[in-house]
Amino acid sequence: MRAFGMFNYLHLDPWYEDSVLFVDGKGRVLSLTVTLDTALGKPREVYRTSAESRDCEARLCASLSLTSATWAALSDGTGRLCLLRTGKRGDSTHTKWEPLFSEDMGEPFIILHSTSHVQAGVHNIEVLLLRIEKDPQETKGSGYCVSLEWITVANTGGHAQEKKYEVQKRRVLRGKSVPLYAAVEPQGKGLMVASEKPFVFTHVDGRPVEQPDPEPMEVEKTDPIYFWQQTAEDITVCVRMPEGVAKEDVQFRLTADNISIGLQGFPPLLEGQLHTSVDPEASAWIIKNDKSLEVTLQKRSEGPMWPELVTGDRRGEYVMSDEQAALIHERLTHLTAEDLNGNPDRDKPPCNSQELEDCDGFPEDSSSLTHFDGESLKPTQVVNLGSHQFLFTVDVNPSEMPCFCLRHDVDALVWQPRPDQPTNMWEHVATFNALGYVQASKRDKKFATCAPNFSYASLCECLRRAFIYRQPSPVETVLFNRKQGRQVGQVAKQQVASLDSDKPILGFRASNERLYILTSKNLFVLKVNNN
């Protein structure tokens, strides 16, 4: 249901904003262009899938991905992938799309994302496919697994046979949940996946990928190499050293994100990526009692407590300060008593679960956002999304990866992936105040999106209703907040649109000026903003 039941059948062309496309029940790719404010031109058929594919019983929904300003990827739902040269779609020439690659890829799939780039003079198209497959090794769960296949198709013909496109590489990832977000980098150098359960690469060009051996269980506990404490502002680390160690023997390197401590002529005692950034200029180290090295690290962000010092390092021991121990003891005192009481809540009324709202709950599984390197196929960065509920994906700039929107407390924050900036791979680009809280109350919510210029966000229900949430804008009249006694300069407006249709909403897209809503019988265009 997550993979195919919530599929968005409508596609907004990010290169030509006033144009939308969808594949109809007859396998026709139809293109519609806005002519006036809310007037649509006649649907134009730009391509049609084969009759055999439409008669296939095991067919999934047909899916379309606009790869570039002149290319598109199409799946007919039976397992066939078509790459189509569309020409400049914004022109009024109404040219039909030309298939330059059509090949059976196996089990049926839908296309999640595609991108086009030129590498060493060769045109490459990267396509990301999603399948739900039976897993014979799965004995306890559902018996199915989620498969992502990353395919690279290249023009191998050179100048003499310009139209010869062939599969160059096929990479398969497997997981146990449908990805919330999945996209290939613009130059095809990597992949980003957000999901509730982790994904790993299992096959490349049909050959299994060697999986790393699981870490052996610790049979006996060894003495810790270092001890560490922390406050909201800083961290203190004590590393054991040979007695009589001199300052000249110590090798110490510290950057904002990495640390290395050791002795000359020996491998580092402690080395790796710090859990969070520190300020190297405000950090220092000294030798204490001729047998230990004490390092003080200044946190770059005050407040959050670190769960570990160096990512993945288990050779240290965290020592709680007396103040922290006393605080935790105080918080736990209400859970302890001199007398054993088997029913402490006997006199309290039972909790009414109806008093809890959707927005008070968090997803059962902790989602993560992972960046995979295209060469090594290993994760280079993994971010735990925790309670930050995933809301939607939106194409803001067609030359970059799609943005994604996460709930942060009551707000919704939009993030732009920057794979070329490893130290700042996800950049915060927009905020929709209170949208995280508001969307949680919409029980029948089906799709969510926002305008590429972030002027408004919008949600729609399964039937009939769409909600528009505008960014705050200046008010023309004098307005006062009675409780606080201050003048209000900006007001954010909410609007509700009710469609004249009883058919389920199948597609939902937003441009800077218009909202497009597709049902099985109609395509509605709502004018939201003026130029």
TrEMBL record:
Annotated region described as Disordered, given as residue ranges: 337-356
Report one GO cellular component.
cytoplasm
Taking every annotated instance into account, which residue ranges of this chain make up the domain CS?
A: 221-310
Give the coiled coil ranges. none
Domain of life of the organism encoding this protein: Eukaryota
InterPro entries assigned to the protein according to its UniProt record, in alphabetical order: CS_dom, HSP20-like_chaperone, NUDCD1
Q: Which Gene3D superfamilies match?
A: 2.60.40.790
- Where is this gene product found? Cytoplasm; Nucleus
Q: Which UniProt keywords apply?
A: Cytoplasm, Nucleus
Q: Which PANTHER family match?
A: CHRONIC MYELOGENOUS LEUKEMIA TUMOR ANTIGEN 66 (PTHR21664), NUDC DOMAIN-CONTAINING PROTEIN 1 (PTHR21664:SF1)
- Name this polypeptide is given: NudC domain-containing protein 1
